[in-house]
Amino acid sequence: KEKKTMNKHIQEEIEIMMKERGIAEDEHDDDYYEQMLLANPSNSFVWTHYISHRLSKKGYKDAKDLCERAVKVIDMTKLQEKLNLWIAYMNLESKFGKESEFQNIVKRALKINNQKEVYLAVIDIYLKRKSYKIIEGIYVILSRKYKFDIEIWKKY
């Protein structure tokens, strides 16, 4: 809870800084986000906004390149921030990339992050796509791996 409160506080500070600059979010340029990242290199909120900006201004390929940069730069001790970036990357691939690329990103995310959290995020992504058979398969994996985890059984 403390980490979530801190993340929320940081997000609020960033939003205040954005408002103080008097620029609508769509009007930011790459230099603005690069400056924000210099001050907060492990802040997934800034990264995800930058990725969204790149996607809308320059397209999928540039957004994907930025995701790669983000997951390489993020401080590995900032577990939630790292997970947030990987989830953003998986969402990008799911929506705009090929299924094989999405699966590769998921495999990489599973190696680096809390596997249960990654699987739950993947379930959410597949729910948006209404891929219920795939979701069922993931729940089978989770129920075997986390037999006594009530959270998994509740969601299943």
Automatic annotation (TrEMBL):
Record SUPFAM superfamilies: TPR-like (SSF48452)
GO BP term (any one): rRNA processing
InterPro entries listed in its UniProt record: Rrp5, TPR-like_helical_dom_sf
Superkingdom assignment: Eukaryota
Single GO term (MF): RNA binding
One cellular component term from this protein's GO annotations in UniProt: small-subunit processome
PANTHER family documented for this protein: PROGRAMMED CELL DEATH PROTEIN 11 PRE-RRNA PROCESSING PROTEIN RRP5, PROTEIN RRP5 HOMOLOG
Name of protein: Uncharacterized protein
